[in-house]
Every structure is written in C-alpha cells, then in structure tokens.
Amino acid sequence: MPRQPQPATRPARRRSYDQFCAGARALDAVGDRWTLLIVRELLAGPRRYTDLHADLPGVSTDVLASRLKDMEQGGLVTRRRLPPPAAASVYELTGRGHGLLPVLTALAAWGAPALEERRPTDAVRAHWFALPLLRALDGAGGPTVAGVVDVRLDEGEFHVRTGGVAAGEPVYGDGPAPRADAGIALDAELCLALGRGDLTFAQAVKDGRIEVFGDGPLAADLRGE
Question: How far apart are CA 144 and CA 133, in angstroms?
C-alpha cells in the first residue's frame, strides 16, 4: 500500500492580541507566563540554561526552552558560546531586553503589598530582593555616590549597582561582588518595606535597622556622613 503523503507542517504562529496598541504589542512580547521572570534573572548578567532553571522553581524544562526561543526571536535575549575552558552556552539580555528594567521595578513596587506574609509553599532566593532594594537606593534618601554594594540577608547574599548602569551592564548579581565599594546587612522584611516606600534608606540607617560596612566614599554616603 503506498504511503499517504504527510500534511505540510505549518510554521508556529506567535500569539498576538492583534491590536494596534503599544500596550498590546508589549504584551505580545512579554505577556507569556515566565517571560518577565526570565528577564529578572538575566538582569544579573549572562546565565546558563541550568542556572536559569535552578532559579525559576516551578518552570518545566520545555516551557523554559520555549520561552527562551521566543525571546530570542523577539530580540529580547541572545545566546552565545563561552570560550574554553567553560565551553558552555549562556543567555543574555539585548538592549531591548534591558529596557524592561523600569517595567520590572514598577511591577515589583505594585506587587510588594502582596508580600506581607510568606506562604509555606513560597520559594525564595536572596537576589529576588534586589529590585525593591534598588528602588530605595536610587530614590529619595538613598546614596548619591555610585558603586557596588554587597547585601547580606538571612536568605543569602547578593550585590547591587547603585547610581545607574551602562547599557548591557548587570544590574545586580548573586553572591558577593568580586570588588564591592560597600556592604550592608538588613532583613528581608525591611528590604520589602524600603521597596514599598514605607521609609527611606537614610531613615532605616538612622534607626539602626541597617548595618553599613566599608570605609570608602560610598560606605560613608550610605551612613549619611
């Protein structure tokens, strides 16, 4: 019996709202579940697929691979091969992807009131507190000196870059920085309160709720000296 011809495979069509609206076009690009959280992770700089999967608990490997492919096609991320001895592929944000930083910062501020109580099923990573803390550091009552700040929480350690970043430069990173200009220690609840705008960074230092480490200009500025 002759084999029946197989139907032609149609190219996958990206979902679209098909509306001539800037908001709808933005959601066409980043409205899928997990996309903005992938951007959150890549704001820390280039990441391997396995590292992204580890810091996005709950995402399946198929969904993560699909989202990354869509983000590549949409011009939000690029993939490149690291030279030996690493010999691994990493994903990193393009300039358009980095442009989502203020979107994520505003979204984190809007969602902060929902974090009053941590649920037993909630995963947590220390660097997830970077965006609300950056909002406080770069806002009123924050330091005027730019630099890298190591941040110590009970949940772990990360570092942030205050005073703005150059195009393509990581906004924050997991763990201590290779070379930090200052360090601070505080608890996660205070970090969230700062992000909500309940108090300023300067007020929290004055009240003794933030401990500042270091002797350089940024550390002095953080202490209000």
Answer: 15
Which DSSP state fits 3?
Answer: P
**CA–CA distance, 81 with 48 (Å, rounded to integer):** 10
| 186 close to 218: Cβ distance less than 8 angstroms | no
Are the CB atoms for 127 and 158 separated by under 8 Å?
A: yes
**CA distances (Å), 112 to each of 53, 70, 142, 212, in order?**
24, 28, 19, 24
C-alpha to C-alpha distances, 127 to 19, 132, 141, 151, 220, nearest whole angstrom: 36, 10, 22, 9, 24
Judge whether 221 and 145 are in contact, CB under 8 Å: yes
Rounded to an integer, what distance in angstroms lies between the CA atom of residue 99 and that of residue 77? Answer: 12
3-state secondary structure of 31: coil
**Beta-sheet pairing, 211-213 with 182-185:** antiparallel
- Contact present, 216 and 181 (Cβ < 8 Å): yes
What pLDDT does 14 receive?
Answer: 62
10-residue mean pLDDT profile of the chain (225 residues): values are: 44 73 93 96 95 96 96 96 85 95 91 87 94 86 88 95 78 93 95 89 94 95 91
